[in-house]
Specification:
Blueprint (H helix, E strand, L loop, with lengths): L1 E5 H14 L4 E6 L7 E6 L3 H4 L8 E7 L9 H13 L4 H12 L3 H9 L2
Antiparallel strand pairs: 1-4, 2-3, 2-4
Length: 117
Amino acid sequence: HIFFEGVSRADETLKRICTQLPNWEFAIGRELTKEFESVYRFCGSEYEQIRDEITWKGEFVIVLHNPQKHAQPSSQDVLKCIDEIYAKGAKPKVLAKLISEITGESTKVIYTKLTAK
């Protein structure tokens, strides 16, 4: 997530976000592309320690990143989801294309499997 924040609200915004997202990674770009540009990087739980190091002047670009790996669904979960979508009337061609994008398998092979049911 990337957003712009003015100096008058930056500290309060960061306090709130860092409290809610202590495991996320943050980067603050201050006065980007200007003479007094500075960048601060920290984890949400470290905000209170780094807060005094930040020069509170100018404009801020705040970048948030969730470093936790997203759990991959099991094959059984994917097949169940596909069956539900297919049962609701999804066209096999569209569904095959979607599954192909997710898995990397050939759209043609997936389409053949879907229409063999």
